[in-house]
Structure prediction request, 224 residues.
Amino acid sequence: VVVGIANSRVVARMADLSAMPDDELRSSLPFQVQDLIPIPLDEAELDFQVVERGLVVDGEERVRVLLVAAHRDMVRNLLAALEGAGLTAARLDLIPLALIRAVHDPAAWMTSDEPLDGYEVIIGSGAGVTNVVVHADGVPSFVRTLPTGAAAVTEAIAVDLGIEREDAEAVKRGIGEDDFVSDHPHVDEIAMTSLAPLADEVAGSLDFHRGQIGDRVLRRVVLS
Prediction:
């Protein structure tokens, strides 16, 4: 099986490293990226994907990579859970990359005359994790995993209205809510208020990235 991972114990960073063959690049990762990841290197599993070659910075040839670092004990626990289920991991995949593969449509980036410029933003929000990934025609340029999601709405409804989480989840999903909402007309306001911090985090992440990409535009946002 292929297993997707994205949580607060996985970090993805774009990094410009010294150009070298991939095998040498892999062996040199611990020495080149120790200042880029907030995980002690002796506790981390590292991997990378080259996204651009041939860069020249201050006269030195560089290579741009998507660097991924994961806490080793988290990876071990995940593999142990698979083993307990009688499954074998063929690959551990970063969910933001899976989002690109699922949503990216190469035909949408082409016109009859020339390729379209700019970046696409994919925001994949689940219960407890929201992934923000920016890509240009399938090549990632920014990845961030935020440790919050739609469960914040459920929790806010439950606390504000004094109901059980299961009932709050049903209200959030619109299951049998007509009579309930008529008695509690501010449910939408609760939901919007609880999502405001997440929206601010996403906007702040995109503002940071736009400061790095110059004049190229964010041409579309896809919400999943």
